Structure formats: C-alpha cells, structure tokens
Amino acid sequence: MTDVEQFLGRPLTAPVGQPLRVAVYSRLADGIRSGVFALGSALPRETELGVALGVSRTVVREALMLLEEDGLIRTRRGIGRFVAEDLPLVGLEELRPLEAALAEGGDDVVVRQTEFVVQPTTDYVSSHLGLDEAANTWFRESVVERGGEPIAILQEHLPAGRYLTDANPQIAAVLEEATGDPSSLMTALSARGAVFGAGVCEITANVVGRTRGALLGLAPDSPVLILTQTASSGGAPVYLAKCIVSAKAGVLSVVQTAQ
Prior knowledge:
By secondary structure, the chain is α+β, with helices and mostly antiparallel strands. The protein has ten helices and eight strands. The protein has helices spanning 3-9, 20-34, 46-53, 57-69, 98-102, 123-129, 162-167, 169-178, 185-191, 210-216; strands at residues 73-76, 80-83, 109-120, 136-146, 149-159, 199-207, 223-233, 236-246. Helix 2 packs across helix 4 (57-69).
C-alpha cells in the first residue's frame, strides 16, 4: 500500500455540525502541506478520492473547488487536477502558534505553563477533536507574557491514551517532554517533528471573567478576543487551543490573499 493510499484510508472524522466537504478539504490540504501529495503532482481522480474517503463524488468536487480557491491545487483542462508548484503564504488561518502572532512587534514572548493534567473530555473538546464521551484528554493551561506582561491565556487540548496513540504515535511519544518548553505545545511538538496540517481558527469576542481576569490582571468585565484553533496531523484532528487575548496584545494579523 502506498503512502497516499494509507493516508486516504484513515477514517474521515468531522466535528459535529461540520460539512463533509470541509472534512475532505482538511484531509487533502493536510496531505498537501505535509508532503504526502508532492508539489506539482497529480491528484487521484474524483471517483478514486470518493471511494478512498467514503464520500460521494459531489462532496469531493466541492472540497476540490475550495482547495483551488485557496491556491493549493490547479486544474489543467482535459488532464486533471495537480498540487500547486508553490503553496500560498498564510497567517492565523494556517494556525500559526499563538506566540508567533503575538511576537510580531519584535518583543520576546514567553509561554508560562500553569497546569498540565489528564481529564475527561467535554462536549466542547469532543466536538472539535472527534472524540467519544469515554475519552480522556490532555489539558495544558499557560499564561502568555510579552515583555514580562501577561497578555493572553492559552488552553491546549490533545487526546490522551490510546486516542492519541492511535491518531498519532509520534506526538504521543514526545508530548510529555514537549510540555516543558516555554512555548505553545504546537511549537514544542513541531520542533520534535510533528507536522500540523489543515485546521480552523474561529474568532469571537467576550468578557474575561473573574478567574481569567486574575491571571491577566484585568477587571472581570474587560473585553477579550477568543481564538479557537484546531489542527490535524496525519489527517486526524489532534490539537485544540482556546486563546484568550487581552486588548494589551495589540494588533493580530490575518493574511488575506486575492482570489
């Protein structure tokens, strides 16, 4: 069995409410960015992708349209679809680690861990990582400081036990070592060879609340941005982060490209 066949043959999982075309897009985008599909190479035909992923040809076609809109693939009329020769540059929408986004002003950013435990999953975590209610998850909370001042709280979740070992044994092997780094887990795991692919960054606004406000030195009714990031590795969702960002963080960039 080839690497492509193994990659496509993994069970396709989608969070509750996510359209299948988005799940297929995420799987294929992950394969492109992680090198399973080489730059410039031909993609399998729609029917082959549909059979391998267990979805209809219509779902595959819609996912391929999204990939082409984002500049990840190109269509050659009468020949087929090909991975782009050069992949587009992206920003927060490509799940840059939080400290990378907050460090754009040039100041040093440190991620200071406050908690790292295994706990039962919640509906919130399960819906993003495709876990069942019996799963346990790793939870890591950190305060992000820039120039010695707390500007954000980072809460990271990964599957625990067999749920992580089955999804990505490489991450499972280095996770506890990685948590000691003064960085996000995404950065620490990437430094140890983990390849994170497609994901989603959702942005909402709220107030910080009493407990989080105490960590950030803010009044409970202070406004904050909440960034919810998910990321896949090897075609399976394995990483979820909630980033509570105070106004002291300043500008956060999201790269937009013309279509």
